Amino acid sequence: MKVIELKSLSKIYNPDTIPVRAINDVSLSVEEGEFTAIVGPSGCGKTTLLNMIGGLDARSEGSVEVGGVSIQDMSESQLTTFRMQHIGFVFQAYNLIPVLTAKENIEFIMVLQNMDAKTMQERSDDLLDRMGIKDQRDRRPSELSGGQQQRVAVARALASRPKFVLADEPTANLDSGSTEALLDIMAKLNEEENITFIFSTHDQRVIDRAKRVITLEDGVIVSDEHR
Amino acid sequence: MILYIKLAWRNVWRSKKRTWITASSIAFSVFFACLMQSSQLGSYDNMIDNSARFFTGHLGIHQVDFWEDQIIDNSFDQQELIQLDLSNSDILIGVPRLSSFALASYGDKTKGAALFGVSLPLEAEFSYLKRKLIEGDYNNKGGVLMAEGLAANLNLRVGDTLVLMGQGYHGVNAAGKYPVSGILKFPIPTLNQGAIYLPLETLQEFLSAPNMISSYSILLKDSQDTELMRSHMETILKDKELGLMTWQEMLPDLVSSIELDYYGGWVILIILYVVIGFGIFGTFLMMIKERTYELGILNAIGMNKYRIQAMVAIEIFLLIFLGVLMGLLMATPIILYFWSNPILLSGDAALAMEKFGYEPIIPFALNFKIFYNQGISIFVIALFLAIYPMLAIKQLKIIKALNE
User: Fold this and answer.
1) pTM, whole model, 2 decimals?
2) Is there a contact between B302 and A85 if contact means CB atoms under 8 Å apart?
């Protein structure tokens, strides 16, 4: 089942002055359960592509469908709700809410989804357990290591049971031990629960673990390798 | 909602110093504004109370022409009032008064004096006249009570005999000798320099005006009810050729000066609020600018902008509430203290107050409205200033915010 389908997607900056095509006529689809890495040199358009897939940035041309739903014509508010319900985000800088504990950060999305307290409690406990950070549940981000913070971020991304998780350079700020631990968790979630992950990355360790590697150069897909 | 409040509360305390500085600036503005308004309203209440008690009452019944031409010939027979039922639960007390002017003489000294014929027992309650007695006997019916300043000018003491000369009812000569039974000390200089109080019957006899009174002054339990009571009294007096006036009509200069001072006070408060407003706005500005990236992340992960606005609005509310609460807690004990212990002025400040005919004190008013008004004013200002963060969140662009 396709979770993402891009058709002739382009992103053009400065269309009226000096147009710059950050993404140029990209078409691709991602099936449920894929573990995909989008790679390429800096400035090739990886983050822009991820932002458009996640509905954070508007496309200039083409279309984006998520779970069969076209998102380009949604209003800003509809897009925000759509992101909350269907897409999980993991950022390079973790971006947890600094004043909330690890558990509260995970529950935050579920609160936005108006989930009942019991379900929320069970799900956050389960996620903390699976991420191996149950004993850190009451600590704030500033009291956690980078690796622990990123695990909380992954748990937060999964809390809403999204169709897929978009991870923008998730290991860029992590040491090798933390990177391996995080990749183990994500690979396990992918294999055991069929959760779809799409990464943008430079990190060879992530690329090595990916089941599909899409290479971008100057906004164009130059290779799409299924392993 | 609980998470929003939790989030907002913790966000408020993320920058403790800034929160304390902002809350303190709000607190001090509320504190000063409350103190200022309390002293202003306290002074007005005191001026109104003094004037009402000593001169006009909150309501005054006169012969219709009396207020325009305050002569003895424009007095009226108090029997006209005796037939009426003036009792009302809002009325504290009513007193008959006869007033006139005469020359007061002792030895080789003569001074102009204002004569007040009063019911001494009633006046003790109405104007607290008995409390002004500093020497002699208040209830000596044969004598007169003289203001301290006038007595000093005439070199009179208790027991001396005062000669009064003037014009009586319908132009008859009025002259008499009266022993001074007591000396009164008034806070109001005009009274202290020229007032002589006589029992009502004694002055009526002196002026050859039996049963005549210049006014029937009514003191209300609450001066705010003046207009209400006026309507009530007008109904009672409708068949009488008597005029009814409120203290505002009888003391237009006092009303004007109170209004002028009140609006002047508001100008100072507005300046204070503008200064504080800039401080609050600076905090709001930082609240948004510092956290643009974070707000972008919240929006990116699925928090709608109206929810972000709600969260920031709760933060603003908590911050302002903290400041206002601190200000009110600081102001309340001080106002309470000065309410029961008015500031007594001395030296030049006291002289200046007396020169304008006021008691040299700064009384404070204890009125819930003072606290309410200042609290609400700050909240309204904050609400107005909160438009900026709300608009900034509405216009938030995720990609731009994430690139901050």
Assistant:
1) 0.75
2) yes
